[in-house]
Design brief:
This protein is of the alpha/beta class. The protein contains eight helices and nine strands. Strand 1 and strand 2 form a beta hairpin. The chain is globular and about 55 Å long.
C-alpha cells in the first residue's frame, strides 16, 4: 500500500500517559501543523521525550486520542526520530546509511549516489569508510541525522540533539537542522538549550510536570511568557 501523502496535522486531544500507574503526561492537547520548527521546552522529567515517542507511534496513550491527518492509527512511513544518544551499527558510516536505505528499493548506483548525497549534506563525506562507532559524539549525531533523512521524512522528531556536544559540534548540528527546516521538513524538537530554541523555533510548547503550560509563538514566549512557570524556567529558577 502506498503511504499517505501526509501525517500532518498531528493532534493530541486530552492525552495522558502512565507508567506503572503513575501519570507521566496528563490532559495534553495541541496541534502540530506543517509550519516552522516546534520546540518542546521544560524541566527534566517534564514529559517532553514521552510526547515525542507518542507522536512517533513508539508508544500508545493511556488516555485521550492522538490523530495523524485525522487518522487514529498511522504507520511511521514519513516520520523519523533521532534520540539524544543514537545507537551506531557495528559497521562503517556508509554501511549504516545503506542499512537504512534497504526499504528504498534502489539499485546499486542509485543507492551509492544517495549515500554520497546524505553524507555530503551532514558534512561526513570524508568519513564514509570509517567505523561509525569510532566517530566523535558530534559526528555520530550528524550520522544519525543522515540516517533519519534516508527515510525521506515529512516530520523529524529530535530529542536533545545537541546535549553533551561541545560548542563546535553543537554549532554544526544546528546548521544542519536549519537546512533541514528550510527544505520543508517539519522539525519537532525537545531541548534544554534556550539559545538553540530561540534561534530555531517557530513556536514553543512549554511542558512542566506532565502538563502543557504554554503554547505560543517563540518570540512571544521568550519576550513575555504568559505564566509564572514559563518566566521561572527562562530565568533558570526551579519550576514548581
Amino acid at each position: 500500500m502506498r503511504a499517505p501523502a501526509t501525517d500532518l496535522p498531528i493532534r493530541f486531544d486530552n492525552v495522558g500517559f502512565d507508567i506503572g500507574g503513575a501519570p507521566v503526561l496528563d490532559q495534553i492537547s495541541f496541534t502540530l501543523d506543517g509550519h516552522g520548527p516546534t520546540v518542546l521546552l521544560g524541566p527534566n522529567g517534564a514529559g517532553k521525550s514521552t510526547i515525542l515517542r507518542l507522536a512517533m507511534s513508539l508508544a500508545a496513550p493511556t488516555r485521550g486520542r492522538i490523530s495523524w491527518a485525522a487518522r487514529d492509527a498511522a504507520q511511521a512511513e514519513r516520520r523519523a526520530i533521532v534520540f539524544q544518544r543514537p545507537v551506531m551499527l557495528r559497521r562503517s558510516v556508509a554501511a549504516n546509511l545503506a542499512f537504512y536505505l534497504d526499504r528504498a528499493q534502489l539499485n546499486a548506483p542509485a543507492r551509492a549516489a544517495r549515500i554520497a548525497q546524505l553524507l555530503q549534506q551532514v558534512g561526513l563525506a570524508d568519513c564514509a569508510r570509517r567505523p561509525a562507532r569510532q566517530l566523535s559524539g558530534g559526528e555520530q549525531q550528524r550520522l544519525a541525522l543522515a540516517r533519519a533523512l534516508a527515510r525521506d521524512p515529512e516530520i523529524l522528531f529530535l530529542d536533545e540533539p545537541t546535549a553533551s556536544l561541545d560548542p563546535a559540534a553543537a554549532k554544526s548540528v544546528e546548521a544542519i537542522l536549519r537546512d533541514i527546516a528550510a527544505s520543508g521538513i517539519k522539525i519537532v524538537m525537545a531541548t534544554h538549550d534556550l539559545g538553540l530554541a530561540r534561534r530555531l523555533a517557530d513556536d514553543i510548547l512549554f511542558i512542566a510536570r506532565g502538563r502543557l503550560v504554554e503554547s505560543a509563538p517563540a518570540r512571544q514566549f521568550f519576550e513575555a511568557p504568559a505564566t509564572e512557570q514559563g518566566a521561572q524556567f527562562l530565568r533558570g529558577d526551579l519550576v514548581l
